[in-house]
Amino acid sequence: MQPTQRRLLFIGIVALGLAWTLFSADKKGNSTAGLIPAPQAGFLAPDFTLETLEGESITLSDLRGKAVLLNFWATWCPPCRAEMPAFQQAYADYADQDFVIVAVNAIQQDNLAAINEFQAEFGLSFPIVLDNDANVSRAYQVRSLPTSFFIDKKGVISEVVIGGPIAEALIRSRIEELIK
To answer: Which pTM was predicted?
Structure first.
């Protein structure tokens, strides 16, 4: 094959690839529209149903229409302990503005007595749910505690914060963005 023929073949292949890309592209920019569940910003938060300490069920998708702070924690985790007073204060200040905190306890690494004591010590009034089999922790790919997910009113994750403690100012600014 001559060099000129190779160039023309190459240009033809590139042109076909470009045409295919343009033809098959999502022109509206909403191919997933955040509707594919994934534990990262811009994606729908994976749904789950877990029981609270009181035995009530909480399903994440039932909270649509509210801004949600989903926090994975344990009683033995020092940063978790440090951020709980700020979470409780934020919950008290914003609960009447369609905001809720759901604290997911990694119960397989904790025990019920310690959780009840922790709740009483910090005066926590937001729901604490128990991830008995760690399925929710796996679905959210939680690798370290604490890990927090800020979820908008449509159920889409807006931010993931791994580690802590999260500063109260950051918590408040993220909540205010979500409840707009």
So the answer is: 0.79
